Amino acid sequence: MNKEKENIIKKNGVCEDYLVICDHASNNIPLEYENLGISKKDLESHRAFDLGAYEVACELSNLLSCSLVMANFSRLLIDPNRGKDDPTLIPKLSEGKIIKGNINISMSEDDIERSKRIDRFYLPYHKQINRFINKSLDNGRIPKILSIHTFTPIWKGKKRDIDVGILWDKDDRLSKIFLNSLKNIKLGDNKPYSGRLKNDTLYKHASRHGIPHVLIELRQDLLKKEKDKLQWAKKIHNVLKENEKTIKLFLLKKYGSYTFKED
């Protein structure tokens, strides 16, 4: 695949009961952006993408025989897991480091470069997710959305004490299943981050429409080897298979969101 031309990695599965998505799968930045002025070391770090998330998402999609949508561009270029009104949509800082190529981009809708990145990268990713969701719904199936992310083992010099984070907003149907089913694992309930982020990917595609969903955060040092990534995908898959009867009963149900007063 030519990563300079393809913005979206997509895969048609045979099962429409699930949809795997991965917002931060890639550190790809087209050549014209000159890596946004950051070093190669930073480009290969968590600043630019979620290490290991790509492989876990691919394997989980294979195990479920379901569709997969992954952003094939770095979150430093534009973060698909942010609302268009979020000031970190095009980040000027990443973990204390200035992103030189983003400094002059404003929040204004009239900003030409901002609009260009939204049209070229952000919108195609979200439109592709919508296509797969609508395809399932048109066929009378409710696609449970599984969003795969990873997090650093150390944050601001402090070691994180969880292995896996299960993130959710008001709809806790899938999150409860994972929190109750993953055994002998240090779990974070809406940790190390909160699943209540205004206008994020899961709000756009799941919460607003009553579609069951969960965001799974895996600690990166648990994904160092290829076999580790495959093993974690299998653990996620096993939880889904063990709770298959319950999950099949899930209907479209709007729980609302903690991020909006009207919800």
Q: Which CATH first-tier class would you pick?
A: Alpha Beta
User: Beta-strand percentage?
Assistant: 15-25%
Give the count of helical stretches. Answer: 7
Q: Percentage of helical residues?
A: 25-40%
CATH structural architecture? 3-Layer(aba) Sandwich
- Dominant shape: globular
Please give the number of β-strands: 11
Low-pLDDT residue spans: 1-5
Regarding quaternary structure, what we see is single chain
> Helix and strand succession?
EEHHEEEHEEEEHEHEHH
| CATH topology name | Aminopeptidase
Structural class, judged by helices and strands? alpha/beta
Main sheet characteristics: 7 strands, mixed
**Rg from Cα:** 18 Å
State the CATH superfamily name.
Zn-dependent exopeptidases
How are strands sequenced across the largest beta sheet? 1-3-2-6-11-9-10
Count of individual domains: 1
Mean pLDDT across every amino acid position: 93
State the separation between the terminal residues, measured CA to CA. Answer: 42 Å
Which helices and strands occur, and which strands form pairs?
Elements (H helix, E strand, L loop, with lengths): L7 E4 L3 E8 L17 H4 L9 H12 L1 E6 L21 E2 L2 E2 L13 H27 L5 E8 L2 E2 L2 E2 L4 E4 L5 H9 L5 E3 L11 H5 L7 E7 L6 H17 L1 H5 L15
Parallel strand pairs: 2-3, 2-6, 6-11, 9-10
Antiparallel strand pairs: 1-3, 4-5, 7-8, 9-11
Helix pairs in contact: 2-6
Explain what the structure shows.
The chain is an alpha/beta fold. It has one domain: Aminopeptidase (3-Layer(aba) Sandwich). It is 30% helix and 18% strand. The strands form 3 sheets. The protein has a 7-stranded mixed beta sheet with strand order 1-3-2-6-11-9-10, with helices on both faces. Helix 2 (53-64) packs across helix 6. It starts with 7 loop residues before the first strand and ends in a 15-residue tail after the last helix.
